[in-house]
Design brief:
Largest sheet: 8 strands, mixed
Structural class: alpha+beta
Oligomer: single chain
Helix content: 25-40%
Distance between the termini: 57 Å
Strand order of the largest sheet: 6-9-10-24-23-22-19-12
Radius of gyration: 30 Å
């Protein structure tokens, strides 16, 4: 018999009754039932119930065991009595009577319990991540992650893509975040950068004639952490295709993303044909470029109903042509308590409040508007708003007014809040969509200049002619995202592969031709030697897994994540370098007295 096990803890069934077996694993739970000791033995594959009575030679050894000790047991497989079977686990029809037990590894007092689903501080969970990963839910999430990656890889190869690995040590590139820099020992004073994305390399692969590329790529960005973005590193499905237009990319990628969600949907509906929503329409209807389409609320412009009305606050705003009034419908939200609660929420978000109209039953048989706004604009305008929004008795509408560019983010948050509070969000689906026609440029208020709004390597719609003749802020890009349930899960574009157009695009954003050649010399040179039209995208593996697992924090689907301060509490990173290491790298650390650190 094998030194440690003849079977795993998830393998034994009723067909094994009578056999002598050997198992090794962790003591998941130990129970004393009237002098008989039970231990649920756990390994990666499952749990098996084992027992010993006072007559067993292993009884005293089991009596000394504690939670999370690692033990080896020998014993006979017995069938459980009918009333004692456990249908919740695959091994629930059997148990093992222990005849011999060996302690392989004792455990100190546990800083967190593996059994159960108790909540612990993040600091404890990350410092003792090896224990946290033993817990059932997190262990299952990590295994699901691996299965998702397998599904992606299988589907990409089925679509005719070839898997390549691009360099990790590369040159710094303006991808929208800070680079992690790696000092060079051989070239003192110079630095490599960890790739924010394999953007240039994958385009160079198209220049090299490989036609269809993908990889599950590690990406590194020195940016502040968020719940839906891990600090330091993340993984993406990176892909690129030659001789394609936007529709070709959609046709190749959509079945992959849809299929991955279908593989793990567990009964939830998955969008079959992704709707194409222009960026401007998405902002207009949902207040976001990553809308949660499970929420049926669509905002509408109701400015005409307030123009020249008795509600002077909105009427005076509308005298400025830039301003509008948007309505956020709230089906079933027509109660004073709910409207007051939303008004208080808005104030908590830094707003003066959130105006509303409620519709109630009236003697006329037609719902009657109520609230300060309804009283000021009168019954005809109130009825017209209700008709436009398709509302009825018991419903409400909330209003935001001003310059849409300034209030759109808040309006989107209000739409989300209303949908959640009124239980309008259909949680039993993965609602996917393409967001298309992103603006090529935006105005940076801080820098007081035009800058790229998305990927600087995208082809502008209209090409070089648009760059030379249009107002930059009106140019749209062949740029697209995939969204799911309120998250951006993929982003890409058709690439600007013409050298003149590339230079012009960067000039508009304030980069000279010399800077383009210096920063992107490899790709710029490649474009001069027969560049095929090409495009692609990248999908966030972490976010896809997060959605599939039904969690809202990426730490719940990552093996060894950092905390909110970008610290690895388990391994003690970042850490100080030794004087010898610094000398070899020709680096001297300058301490900032104001910060108290290097």
């Amino acid at each position: 018999m094998h030194r440690y096990r003849s079977h795993t803890c998830g393998e034994l069934r009723a067909t094994h009754v009578g056999e002598t077996v050997r198992l090794s694993g962790w003591c998941h739970r130990i129970r004393d039932h009237g002098g008989i000791l039970f231990v649920d033995l756990r390994d990666h594959y499952g749990i098996t119930q084992c027992l010993a009575d006072p007559d067993s030679p292993a009884f005293k050894a089991l009596e000394a065991c504690r939670a999370e000790w690692v033990i080896r047991i020998d014993g006979r497989v017995k069938a459980r009595d009918e009333g004692l079977k456990n249908p919740k686990i695959p091994t629930g029809d059997i148990e093992i009577f222990i005849t011999d037990l060996e302690v392989l590894g004792k455990a100190d007092e546990l800083p967190l319990q593996v059994f159960g689903d108790q909540d612990y501080p993040e600091e404890t969970r990350l410092k003792y991540r090896f224990l946290d990963l033993r817990r059932e839910k997190l262990h299952k999430n990590i295994m699901t992650r691996g299965e998702v990656v397998d599904s992606i890889r299988r589907r990409m190869k089925g679509q005719g893509f070839f898997e390549f690995q691009t360099p990790i040590l590369t040159a710094s590139s303006p991808e929208g975040a800070r680079d992690f820099l790696v000092p060079s020992r051989i070239h003192p004073g110079k630095f490599y950068a960890l790739p924010q994305a394999p953007q240039q390399y994958k385009q160079l692969l198209m220049m090299s004639g490989f036609d269809r590329y993908f990889q599950i790529a590690p990406c590194f960005r020195d940016e502040d952490p968020r719940a839906d973005r891990l600090p330091g590193e993340f993984y993406q499905l990176d892909l690129e295709m030659s001789f394609v237009e936007q529709e070709d990319v959609f046709a190749s990628v959509e079945p992959v993303i849809r299929g991955v969600f279908e593989d793990f949907a567990e009964g939830k509906r998955v969008t079959q044909v992704f709707p194409r929503i222009p960026y401007a329409e998405s902002m207009r209807k949902y207040g976001s470029d990553k809308p949660d389409l499970r929420n049926p609320i669509e905002m509408q412009d109701v400015s005409e109903h307030f123009r020249g009305s008795g509600f002077r606050v909105f009427a005076s705003m509308l005298e400025d042509a830039r301003n509008q009034v948007w309505a956020i419908p709230a089906p079933t939200g027509g109660s004073r308590a709910f409207c007051d609660r939303m008004n208080s929420w808005a104030q908590g978000e830094g707003q003066k409040g959130l105006g509303y109209i409620m519709w109630r039953e009236a003697e006329s048989g037609s719902p009657e508007g109520a609230g300060p706004i309804a009283n000021n604009i009168g019954p005809e305008r109130t009825a017209a708003i209700r008709d436009q929004l398709g509302l009825k008795e018991g419903d409400a509408a909330f209003f935001v007014a001003g310059d849409p560019a300034k209030f759109v983010k808040f309006a989107g948050l209000a739409r989300t809040k209303i949908g959640e509070e009124l239980n309008l969000v259909d949680k039993e689906q993965f609602a996917l969509a393409w967001i298309v026609d992103f603006p090529m440029y935006e105005y940076d208020e801080d820098e007081k200049k035009v800058d790229f709004s998305h990927n600087p390597f995208s082809m502008p719609q209209g090409g070089l002619e648009a760059l030379e003749t249009q107002d930059p802020l009106t140019i749209k890009a062949f740029q697209y995202d995939i969204t799911c349930n309120g998250y951006e899960i993929a982003s890409g574009g058709i690439r600007n592969h013409r050298p003149k157009a590339m230079v012009k695009a960067f000039e508009i954003a304030g980069y000279s031709e010399e800077t383009v050649i210096e920063r992107f010399g490899g790709m710029y040179r490649a474009f001069h030697y027969g560049a095929p039209p090409h495009g692609g995208m990248a999908a966030g593996v972490d976010r896809i897994v997060m959605l599939i697992c039904g969690t809202q924090n990426l730490r719940e689907i990552s093996l060894f994540p950092m905390n909110q301060r970008a610290e690895d509490l388990l391994m003690g990173a970042p850490s100080e370098a030794t004087p010898k290491q610094l000398r070899e790298l020709s680096i001297r650390v300058a301490v900032d007295p104001a910060k108290g650190n290097a």
